């Protein structure tokens, strides 16, 4: 394997950039008479905000969170970047490495594997960067020969979502490792937003082995803090310094930092929530299997299920009518006829099932995308249910 060099893929002006120096960069202490940042010394007008000292600028590098998070994740604090959701490091990685010029034919490229999280492509497009798409295989795994063939000297970022959104399954370890070992002039980003719901270990443990590896995680899913907008990026110290250099000075608010730090003191509660979600996922999947309107329940290592229905559009519309909100993924690559259903509380899942049973009782329609004259479908009892890449995949999935 050839040696990876971060400087070889950074845009030259990023390498030479002098970052903005904030007041809290120049004085990092927490005590004193602060007359350096033109803040309001009298405090906020909202009583409930006083606890977060929001009249003062927050720590621009969130060291309290990083120092608490580092032993939990098994990394060094300076291997952590915290962003305004995972979307911020996604965007910063594009801006740091990819030269724009898509319409002029001169742009660098990112490589994505649909179906996948949509912000990789959105961020590239906003930054006028070319997007190469290599679809996953019909069982939602990496098409390794096609991916390796698509990598070229303009490929700066390779995005892998594992567990994958919207399919829910974990991508095969050997495929990710093969890409890491071949793509020595690219960053390989493994987005692990749903890793807490998987039995497989995080790729964070491989950071010191692969300097081109970046791992994204989030406080939005297992930690239950989606409203804080706080994402985690783990990488080499060298890359983290680059991201810190190009981020906005105070990208994480004081309330977000305080609440995240408090949440990290309750890791055991987070783990119990994950166990409960996994229990509910299994119950929900079993209940869905009993519905004649359900054709396929795709294996999941996440907090949701991708489910193919006989008539997904009608099912989606009727669920909305009953104020049960799911995501229609029917127009996404490899997901024809599929709805993505988040695992809710027991009461929420029972409400979902109640509506689905009523829809099923009033409908007897042909499977979406499957002609009536095709061979008879397997029984509902034969539908696959499992986790990860070891689960059986149904041969009758016509959209595959």
Topology readout:
Blueprint (H helix, E strand, L loop, with lengths): L11 H4 L7 H4 L36 H11 L6 E4 L3 H11 L11 E4 L6 H8 L3 E4 L10 H7 L4 E7 L11 H10 L4 E5 L21 E6 L12 E4 L2 H10 L7 H11 L2 H23 L4 E4 L6 E6 L2 H10 L5 E2 L9 E5 L3 H16 L39
Parallel strand pairs: 2-3, 2-4, 4-5, 5-6
Antiparallel strand pairs: 1-7, 6-7, 8-9, 9-11, 10-11
Helix pairs in contact: 3-9, 4-5, 10-12
Word description of this protein:
- With 400 residues, the protein is of the alpha/beta class.
- It has 2 domains: 6-265, 3-Layer(aba) Sandwich (Aspartate Aminotransferase, domain 2); 269-390, Alpha-Beta Complex (Aspartate Aminotransferase, domain 1), CATH 3.90.1150.10.
- It has helices at 12-15, 23-26, 63-73, 87-97, 119-126, 144-150, 173-182, 237-246, 254-264, 267-289, 312-321, 346-361; strands at 80-83, 109-112, 130-133, 155-161, 187-191, 213-218, 231-234, 294-297, 304-309, 327-328, 338-342.
- The chain has a 7-stranded mixed β-sheet, sandwiched between helices. Strands 8-9-11-10 form a 4-stranded antiparallel β-sheet, with helices on one face.
- Helix 3 packs parallel to helix 9, helix 4 (87-97) packs across helix 5 (119-126) and helix 10 runs parallel beside helix 12 (346-361).
- The radius of gyration is 23 Å and the shape is globular.
Please name the defining characteristics of this protein.
400 residues, 2 domains, disordered C terminus, Aspartate Aminotransferase, domain 2, alpha/beta, 13% strand, Aspartate Aminotransferase, domain 1
